[in-house]
Amino acid sequence: MPVSTDLPAVTVLGLGPMGRALTHAFLEAGLRTTVWNRTPGRDRALLERGAVGAASAAEAVAASPLTVVCVVNYDAADAILRNAPVSDALKGRTVVNLTADTPNRARETASWAEAHGVRYLDGAIMTPTTTIGTPAAVFLHSGPEDLYREHRPALDSLGGTHTHLGEDIGRAAAYDIALLDLFWTATAGYAHALAVARAEGVSARELAPFAQGIAAILPPLIAEWADDVDAGTFSGEGNPITSAVSSMAHIVQASESHGIDAGVMRAAEGQARRVVGLGHGTDGFMRVTELLGRR
Ligand code: NDP
Fold first, then answer.
1. Whether residue 207 sits in one domain with residue 120
2. What would you report as the CA-atom Rg of the chain, rounded to the nearest whole angstrom?
């Protein structure tokens, strides 16, 4: 696609799988896109598609009013941004940091940006590289709303849905952490389930369609439990936590009979048992959120 004169130029710092996907989408949308990566050579295919290579991060950020950073974590992002040539070049320009890390790291980097006259938005990408540039991509943003609105046209060229979560700069990272908590514990659960099934002579392929059926039970429960947790009701009608404890104990026993570590399930079972011990055995499993929130 020819370079657009209506859309602003953009710089991408970080050309891992996600940085490359973001750059592809910007190029597809016709933005003049300047790229830089710590390790040289990762930009080769992008340069062939029309990206402009920069010799340094400072040169890259000087090329565009908007810089998107997407590297492994905030140690890496800070290593790139927080040095005199780069921060001088960024003065008065905008950084959208799509690197994943904790809410506090986002707040620290935003404080640094404010002290150095850098306009700063934080963000999180909730979908894999293959979704970028398609309607399936999901981006979360936080920080000054006027800045978000100003750069929305460029961000829209990444496809998908963009949600501004509020002015608290740590909010996108807070959602990211919570959502990845769900993702990784579910993934760890599936890995464990496959190990236990294999020990019982059930292949992953045999189990998979039934595992998908179990996963499909969750979406309506996620909404129902959210209402329970916000209302503090924790109804256990039809599935009290005493029943959950019994089911979890079977999983622990079956795993350990095969010498398979059941640490993750033991942790969940232990939390549920504590809730029962506190006299809430007829409540639903989500009563655990209150236990976890206690200091
Ligand atoms: P990585 O998380 O592996 O990040 C790779 C990038 O980080 C490369 O550009 C690498 O540079 C750079 N980097 C690492 N250490 C440093 C450092 N000390 N200084 C400078 N640059 C450094 O790959 P992704 O591209 O996949 O992920 C980028 C971000 O996107 C991460 O925060 C990730 O959590 C997030 N994300 C990724 C998704 C995915 O599907 N891949 C999905 C959603 C979010 P170099 O080439 O020099 O090593």
1. no
2. 23
